[in-house]
Amino acid sequence: MRVLFVCTGNTCRSPMAQALFQKKIRELRQRQEILAEIEVRSAGLYKFKGIPVSPHTLTVLAEYGIQYDCEPQGLKPELVEWADLVLTMTKFHKYIAIAIYPEALNKTFTLKEFVGEQNSLDISDPVGKSLSRYRHCAQEIDLALNLLQQKLVRILSESSFGSFAFPTPQPLPRTLPLFRWLIGLTRLTQKTRT
């Protein structure tokens, strides 16, 4: 199974989710609780040129015993095609990802939506805030990843992944066609400038 985490710029939340989940998968393998291959990557809806992973993100991951050295990357067609499951940090990320890649509709969820979190479907954005906000964000992601880990272990041990039915996604906003139009307009404007 291939899991892709998505946030805005791939500098805070999705790198945390990727690194924390990879650590959980390694620990499961060491205990032989999971035998199936689970691959994990992350991306941002936007790739901001020259902006690295946030230093606070690296600090928080180091506190979890993780050294993260991946460069931020933007969401690309080949990543969406690669993924069996696209998990976004917010509803907005989900809507934009689906607007750009409508073929990913049935495999794109917010992380909290997929694991059945009932309160908020969004993971708060720590960008530009204090180290303590990054720690809080990592804890929020880690709790959701614990549920994701349990769910994927159950899916991979009880049945073949191909026969697994994903949960029913939350309804999409009526404005999704507007998102698609704006994205198309933005791309057209960028092409005419170059």
Kindly list the characteristics that best describe this protein:
194 residues; alpha/beta; four-stranded parallel β-sheet; 4 strands; 48% helix; 10% strand; globular
Ordered list of secondary-structure elements with their pairings:
Elements: E1 2-7, H1 13-30, E2 39-44, H2 55-63, H3 77-82, E3 85-88, H4 91-100, E4 108-110, H5 111-115, H6 131-158, H7 176-193
Describe this structure in words.
This protein has 194 residues and is an alpha/beta fold. Helices cover 48% and strands 10% of the residues. It contains seven helices and four strands. Strands 2-1-3-4 form a four-stranded parallel β-sheet, with helices on both faces. Strand 1 (2-7), helix 1 (13-30) and strand 2 form a beta-alpha-beta unit. The mean pLDDT is 86.
Largest sheet: 4 strands, parallel
SSE-based structural type: alpha/beta
Strand order of the largest sheet: 2-1-3-4
Which overall shape is indicated by the principal axes computed on the Cα atoms? globular
Number of helices: 7
Mean pLDDT across every amino acid position: 86
- Strand coverage percent: 5-15%
N/C terminus separation: 39 Å
Residue runs with pLDDT of under 50 for 5 or more positions: none
The Cα radius of gyration reads: 17 Å
Helical fraction equals: 40-55%
Number of strands: 4
SSE arrangement, N to C? EHEHHEHEHHH
